[in-house]
Amino acid sequence: MGGIARPWSDEHNERGCQFDQIVGSSPALESVLAEVERVARTDSTVLVLGETGTGKELIAHGIHNLSARRGRPFVKLNCAAIPFDLLESELFGHEKGAFTGAVAQKIGRFEMADSGTLFLDEIGDLPLALQPKLLRVLQEQEFERLGSGRTHHINVRLVAATHRDLAQMAARNEFRSDLYYRLNVFPILIPPLRERGEDICQLVEHFVEVFSKRLGRRIEQIPETTMNAFIAYHWPGNVRELQNLIERAVIRSDDGVLPNPLPPPQRTSIPRVAPQGTFREHEVALILQTLRAAGGLIGGPQGAAARLGLKRTTLLSKMKSLGIFRPRQRPMSEFDQELTT
Known about the structure:
The chain has helices spanning about 15-20, 25-40, 55-65, 85-90, 110, 130-140, 165-170, 175-185, 200-215, 225-230, 240-250, 280-295, 305-310, 310-320; strands spanning about 45-50, 75-80, 115-120, 140-145, 150-155, 155-160, 185-190. The chain is of the alpha/beta class and about 350 residues long. It folds into 3 domains: about 10-190, P-loop containing nucleotide triphosphate hydrolases (Rossmann fold); about 195-250, Helicase, Ruva Protein, domain 3, CATH 1.10.8; about 280-340. Strands 2-3-6-1-7 form a 5-stranded parallel sheet. A hairpin with a 6-residue loop joins strand 4 and strand 5.
């Protein structure tokens, strides 16, 4: 999972041992870690929220490491990665002969995590049919293996994570509201990387060091232009994307210099308008030029509206207010005559 990593100063040594591999010192990250420290010493259920690649599993590890359960099992399961017909068995286990292919007894993740912490990632992908059973375990701390009538009592602390909006899912009856409220005891929202700009330089240096050692490549210089490109980038894939791009850059490095692995910025296909005349004239000229470039097409991915970054209805309204008539099977050279004043 995409990580957040942190080089700790002496004053953070003890704390850094608990937040293994967590890197950064931005106010946004510090706020998250303060919440982790606050809830870790309780046995309350925690719901970790955040976009894909923000480091939710590392936060779950931090909660476990700071809790009284440290040294006990930390068991994890990605609910989106297990087929539906196997997920119940993965969670609760089964007895030999419970179903076709059950040739031996299997211990489930809840039983494995007894006295420790169970981390259920992508909890928003848990099938509705299994949600009542999960709710019962959380409320009663007991369950039965598939194919068995024997009740097993456990002592498990649950940390769940998702990138989905469970509240909206519950409102649409796509997720049980009672389970949502039971999971949402102590929510922790991890900010996306674009809101942690102060951490980017530390993260880049950290991952360069990690992959230099792992790949046997010596990186002696990170050009300022490359670092500035990292800082300016939007990071839709968050820290996981940064980590993967740094690995790619280290592989492609020559002479100890880290290249910029980011794609070049997209260039607009809208022709420039000469800076003269009134604002209205500029706007009219820009729309006419864009209509010509789009072959008269207004809607669609290649239409004038998309090229201008506008909705189709917005462009039509603007054209009407400027007196630009919608073209109807007429040569593009005649567009300039369509302006009425």
